[in-house]
């Protein structure tokens, strides 16, 4: 692990307090964000991540319009005020339904609404959303326009650089221009195209080659449109390099599997004057949150599963993971499991 991604040389600060809510702002700082990841970026992960970084923009898991319109709305939209700045990612393609869900998101206090035009899974394609929508730019634009008309908060799109054989720069530029004209507030570009047939979602995260050059060219041609690059970026050093060209960087799996990557982000990326917290200070601040959720009936392992990578590449990491993995799923497991796991790491 590079020194840039795990800077621990600063003196340990005072224990980190519970995160304070950050006021919603119409102009979000997008220099660094954590990608929306299904089953990973739930509210428990986001609260934990916010204890590590105060300024990094966080995203929910993708929520479909059907789940919000016909399902248990609170289950998908509830979040702690401390999670801000926070964006809600929506999956859908019906402009009226997207507008309805946009109003829900705004009413629940989200700072941004993001449209998923990047997921390549068969299930998502069958629902007519995700990456397959790159073939229907006018429909995506209609969704953007309908959402913009319904809410005052930013509406953004997360997409790929192409799909299947439709991967020419000219088609990508035309797609971008249509979204810009519809009022899209920012474009998040996964710098790989998606193969909709023949590759699994997992393979689509690795097999198509990264084309940072395509995203950089797109940004140069659309200077007025805020643009964030995503895909294969794993360190704050790489983030800083990309920010010389792009308006923002989105990190995905690395920010989840090695969450301490984010500890230096407030200083290194956002210029904050505070020193990073220590991992133990973060965990101590997390205890009251876990106790509150346990009292509501949330099982311990639903929260601690997000903590396994906290001590990535540090002494005691294996003992930490083993204790949480073996004990947190047991019936009645409480915060004492977390405290005991903390004692197993230096």
Automatic annotation (TrEMBL):
Domain DUS-like FMN-binding: 34-333
Location of the active site: 119 (proton donor)
GO MF, one annotated term: tRNA-dihydrouridine20 synthase activity
UniProt entry tagged with the keyword Transcription regulation: no
Cofactor(s) essential for the protein: FMN
CDD domains found in the cross-reference section: DUS_like_FMN
Site (Interacts with tRNA): 116, 205, 321
Cross-referenced InterPro entries: Aldolase_TIM, DUS-like_FMN-bd, DUS_fam, DusA, tRNA_hU_synthase_CS
Composition skew (Pro residues), residue ranges: 10-20
UniProt KW Transcription regulation keyword: no
Reactions this protein catalyses: 5,6-dihydrouridine(20) in tRNA + NADP(+) = uridine(20) in tRNA + NADPH + H(+); 5,6-dihydrouridine(20a) in tRNA + NADP(+) = uridine(20a) in tRNA + NADPH + H(+); 5,6-dihydrouridine(20a) in tRNA + NAD(+) = uridine(20a) in tRNA + NADH + H(+); 5,6-dihydrouridine(20) in tRNA + NAD(+) = uridine(20) in tRNA + NADH + H(+)
Positions of the UniProt region annotated as Disordered: 1-24
UniProt xrefs under Pfam families: Dus
Residues given in the record as FMN binding sites: 36-38, 89, 158, 190, 230-232, 252-253
EC number: 1.3.1.91
Function: Catalyzes the synthesis of 5,6-dihydrouridine (D), a modified base found in the D-loop of most tRNAs, via the reduction of the C5-C6 double bond in target uridines. Specifically modifies U20 and U20a in tRNAs.
Entry similarity comment: Belongs to the Dus family. DusA subfamily.
Protein name according to UniProt: tRNA-dihydrouridine(20/20a) synthase
């Amino acid at each position: 692990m590079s020194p840039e991604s795990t800077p621990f040389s600063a003196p340990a600060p005072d224990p980190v307090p519970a995160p304070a809510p950050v006021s919603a702002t119409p102009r979000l700082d997008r220099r660094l964000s954590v990608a929306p990841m299904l089953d990973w970026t739930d509210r428990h992960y986001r609260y934990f991540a916010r204890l590590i970084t105060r300024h990094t923009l966080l995203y929910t898991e993708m929520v479909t319009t059907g789940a919000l319109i016909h399902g248990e709305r609170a289950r998908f939209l509830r979040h702690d005020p401390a999670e801000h700045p926070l964006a809600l990612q929506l999956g859908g393609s019906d402009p009226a339904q997207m507008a309805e869900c946009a109003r829900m998101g705004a009413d629940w206090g989200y700072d941004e609404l993001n449209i998923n035009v990047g997921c390549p899974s068969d299930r998502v394609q069958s629902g007519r959303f995700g990456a397959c929508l790159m073939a229907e730019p006018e429909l995506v634009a209609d969704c953007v326009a309908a959402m913009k008309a319904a809410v005052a908060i930013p509406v953004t799109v997360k997409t790929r650089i192409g799909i299947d054989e439709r991967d020419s720069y000219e088609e990508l530029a035309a797609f971008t221009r249509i979204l810009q004209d519809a009022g899209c507030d920012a474009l998040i570009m996964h710098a790989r195209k998606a193969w909709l047939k023949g590759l699994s979602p997992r393979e689509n995260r690795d097999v198509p080659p990264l084309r940072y050059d395509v995203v950089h060219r797109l940004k140069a041609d659309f200077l007025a449109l805020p643009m964030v690059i995503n895909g294969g970026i794993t360190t704050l050093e790489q983030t800083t390099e990309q920010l010389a060209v792009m308006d923002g960087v989105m990190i995905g799996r690395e920010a989840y599997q090695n969450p301490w990557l984010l500890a230096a982000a407030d200083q290194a990326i956002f210029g904050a004057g505070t020193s990073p917290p220590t991992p133990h200070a973060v965990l101590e601040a997390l205890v009251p949150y876990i106790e509150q959720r346990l009292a509501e009936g949330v099982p311990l392992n639903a929260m601690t599963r997000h903590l396994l990578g906290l001590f990535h590449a540090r002494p005691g990491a294996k003992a930490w993971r083993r204790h949480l993995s073996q004990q947190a799923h047991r019936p009645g497991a409480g915060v004492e499991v977390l405290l005991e796991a903390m004692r197993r790491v230096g």
